[in-house]
Design a protein that fits this description.
Blueprint lengths: L1 E5 L8 E5 L10 E11 L1 H7 L15 E9 L11 E4 L31 E5 L3 E3 L6 H4 L2 H15 L7 E5 L3 H12 L3 E6 L2 H9 L4 E4 L6 H8 L5 E6 L6 H7 E9 L12 H6 L3 E4 L5 H13 L6 E6 L3 H10 L5 E5 L3
Parallel strand pairs: 8-9, 8-11, 9-10, 11-12, 12-13, 14-15
Antiparallel strand pairs: 1-2, 3-4, 3-6, 3-15, 4-5, 5-7
Helix pairs in contact: 3-4, 6-7
Bound molecules: NADP nicotinamide-adenine-dinucleotide phosphate.
The site of NADP nicotinamide-adenine-dinucleotide phosphate (NAP) has 32 residues, from helix 1, helix 3 and helix 4.
C-alpha cells in the first residue's frame, strides 16, 4: 500500500510517497480501515515542517480521515465490515474531561503516525461512524477542525440561539464555527483579510462582515455592530495577532475560546479587560469521542455539509500542503486516497 511520510528529513519538499506492506489482520479489539479521504489541517503544516521540537523521523502526517472498515478483530462489537468511520483525533479520549493521559496520543502528531496511508489498524474504541448523508471527502474534515469548532461553541461555550459569535478568518475551524453557530440560531460576525472570502461567508449565513486588513482594530467594529455590548463567543484562532482585539470585542461574561496561533504564539495582554468584563478564556484542544458523536448527530439532524474548497489526488499531498500554506483557501482542503 502507499503511504506519505517524512522519512529522512522534515519539510513539504521532503515528503515521500512509498510502497510498504499493508498492515496485518487486526488484533483483539482492533479494526482495519481503508482510508478514502484525508483532510489537511494547519497542524499538519506545523508537523511536516517540524515547528514543534518533538518530531521524530520517519513520520506519517495528517490526523483527519474517513474510510471503510475492511476487517474486524476478535471481540469488536461496535462495528462490522463495511461500516464508514472516521478515526478519532485522540486515540485515548472516549468521554469525560480532558486529562494528560486521554490526550497523550493523537494521530499525525510530531511523534505518532498519522493517517496518510491507504490502510490503518486502530483500536475500535477510537473511531466513530460517519453521518450517512456525507461523502468521504466531507466526512474526512470532521475529526479535528469540525470537532474543535463544535467543542468550543457547543460543549464549552454553551452557545444559545441569539448569541453573538465572532469567527476569525475563513479557514477550516472558523468556517465550521460559522456553520455550527448559524445552525444553532446565533448571529455571526465573520472577519477575513479578503472581501471575496467575506462574500462567501455571507452566503453561508454570516450576518456581519469585517475585513481585518482594512480594519485592524476590529474589536471596535464588533462593539459598533452589537450596539456596544460585544460578542458572547469569540473563536480565537489568530493567537498573538488577534487576542487583544478579542478582549476588546468580547461582551461582559463572554467566552474567548482559544484554539490557534495563526498570528503568533505570545503577546502582552490587556489584563483589565479580562477581569473588568468577567471574561472566560478557555483553551480548547479538539475533543473526545463522545463530543464527536454529539457533533455528528447534530450534523445529521440538520443535514449540514462541511465546506470543502479543493480536492487533491493522493499523489498531490505536497501541493495540498502548499495550498494551505498560501492561505488562499476557504474552509477545508481534502486529499482523496483512491485516486
Ligand atoms: N486547539 C486545537 O484543538 C486546534 C484544532 C484545530 C486547529 N487549531 C489551530 O487553529 C488555527 C486554525 O486552524 P485551521 O486548520 O482552521 O487553519 P487554516 O484553515 O489554515 O486557516 C487559515 C485562515 O485563517 C485566517 N488567518 C490567518 N491569520 C490570521 C490572523 N492573524 N487573524 C485572523 N485570521 C487569520 C486566514 O483567513 P482569511 O484568509 O479569511 O483572512 C487564513 O486563510 C491554527 O493555528 C491551528 O493550529 C487548533
Amino acid at each position: 500500500m502507499r503511504i506519505w511520510e517524512n522519512r529522512d528529513a522534515w519539510g513539504i519538499n521532503n515528503l515521500v510517497m512509498s510502497e510498504v506492506d499493508a498492515p496485518g489482520a487486526p488484533g483483539d479489539g482492533e479494526i482495519r480501515i481503508r482510508l478514502r479521504a484525508a483532510a489537511v489541517n494547519y497542524r499538519d503544516l506545523v508537523t511536516v515542517t517540524n515547528k514543534t521540537p518533538f518530531g521524530k523521523l520517519p513520520q506519517i502526517p495528517f490526523s483527519d480521515g474517513a474510510g471503510e472498515i475492511v476487517a474486524v478483530g476478535a471481540g469488536v462489537t461496535r462495528f462490522v465490515i463495511g461500516d464508514r468511520v472516521c478515526p478519532s483525533f485522540f486515540q485515548g479520549w472516549i468521554e469525560g474531561p480532558p486529562t494528560a493521559r486521554n490526550r497523550a496520543v493523537s494521530l499525525g502528531s510530531a511523534s505518532h503516525p498519522g493517517i496518510l496511508q491507504e490502510e490503518i489498524v486502530l483500536n475500535a474504541d477510537y473511531a466513530s461512524a460517519i453521518p450517512g448523508h456525507l461523502d468521504w471527502i466531507e466526512a474526512a474534515t470532521l475529526p479535528c477542525a469540525g470537532l474543535t469548532a463544535w467543542r468550543a461553541l457547543v460543549v464549552e461555550g454553551g452557545i444559545k440561539s441569539g448569541d453573538v459569535v465572532v469567527v476569525q478568518g475563513t479557514g477550516g475551524v472558523s468556517i465550521f464555527a460559522l456553520q455550527f453557530a448559524k445552525m444553532l440560531g446565533a448571529e455571526v460576525i465573520a472577519t477575513s483579510s479578503s472581501d471575496a472570502k467575506l462574500a462567501r461567508a455571507k452566503e453561508l449565513g454570516a450576518d456581519h462582515l469585517v475585513n481585518y486588513r482594512e480594519t485592524p482594530e476590529w474589536g471596535n467594529a464588533v462593539l459598533d455592530i452589537t450596539g456596544g455590548r460585544g460578542a458572547d463567543h469569540i473563536v480565537e484562532v489568530g493567537g498573538a495577532g488577534t487576542i487583544n482585539q478579542s478582549l476588546a470585542a468580547a461582551a461582559v461574561g463572554g467566552n474567548i475560546l482559544v484554539i490557534g496561533i495563526l498570528g503568533g504564539r505570545s503577546q502582552e495582554l490587556l489584563m483589565p479587560a479580562i477581569f473588568g468584563k468577567n471574561l472566560r478564556i478557555l483553551g480548547i484542544s479538539v475533543g473526545s469521542r463522545r463530543h464527536f458523536e454529539e457533533m455528528t448527530s447534530a450534523i445529521s439532524r440538520h443535514a449540514m455539509h462541511p465546506v470543502v474548497d479543493r480536492v487533491f489526488p493522493f499523489s498531490d499531498v505536497p501541493e495540498a500542503l502548499r495550498t494551505m500554506e498560501g492561505a488562499g483557501h476557504f474552509g477545508k482542503l481534502v486529499v482523496v486516497l483512491d485516486a
